[in-house]
Amino acid sequence: LAIKINKHIILNGFMDMLDKRDVIRSLITDFCYIYWCDKLAESILERVESDKFDIDKILYLLGALLENGYKKGYEYAVSILTQPIPNNGDCRNKAIEIATCLISKGYDAGWDTIWGVI
Question: Which residues contact 15 (CB under 8 A, 6 or more apart)?
Answer without folding.
Answer: 43, 47
